Fold:
Amino acid sequence: MVTIKAKGLTKRFGDFVAVDHIDLEVKSGKIFAFLGPNGAGKTTTIKMLTGILFHDEGELEILGVRNPYPDREIEVKKRFGLIPEEPRIYPYFKGYEFLNFIMAVYEVDDRVEQRMKELLEAFNIDYLDKYVSDMSHGMKQKLLLVSVLMREPEIMFLDEPTVGLDAKSAKILKLYLQRLAQEGKTVFMTTHILEIAERMADEIAIINKGKIIAQGTMEELREQAGTEGTLEDLFLKLTGQEEEIKRIVEELKE
Ligand SMILES: Nc1ncnc2c1ncn2[C@@H]1O[C@H](COP(=O)(O)OP(=O)(O)OP(=O)(O)O)[C@@H](O)[C@H]1O
Ligand SMILES: [Mg+2]
Structure:
């Protein structure tokens, strides 16, 4: 089933086109990696897909609901989870208060509470009595991940989810996302760590200056780039940064 569909999706900030007529199609049971250089338009796209920003042009279909925002926003938002770029949580909550709040808002059942306990243990979260304002970036990120993963939503949107995570937590997150995909959920993630995308993603899209410049499986991307090699090699070639890097390295040598 196609769970995320965008056609001609466009976002402008004044005269600047941040996302320029992009098409996306993501199926359930897949891990989709959305890659691109800084400022390419990844976060802006995730914001449009999750109803945080309205698009200026184009069509959107999420979980079978056509153009869900704003009319069917709540209905759709119940069914997906979002890990935004910055783990912003109300700072005057203690950790457990935040989780209780999420459980109340989503009216979850006992199974979710059980999963929450397992996840807290897996991520070594033993700081639930601390205020969010006193938590480190990684501590907040893990708390947010638990609050979303425990719901096992039909789509998980994750914007740079491994930033700030220690090695064990990042590994657990990767295993968990793979399990969710195997169970038929959709994972839509951005990452600058291309090894993660290469190892995990069923499909990859590369956005550059607001436009999608390549999309497909690793094999298909290799064909498009006309080169073998790692995703890092392909990425730098497709985004036209390969030559620039060579020049900079030469200059550094001098
Ligand atoms: N609210 C805004 N007002 C004006 N410009 C914006 C706004 N939000 C984003 N932009 C611009 O849109 C472009 C895309 O930004 P976006 O945050 O989507 O990039 P990104 O691909 O997520 O980058 P990064 O990898 O650094 O997170 C950038 O040029 C950014 O400055
Ligand atoms: Mg971003």
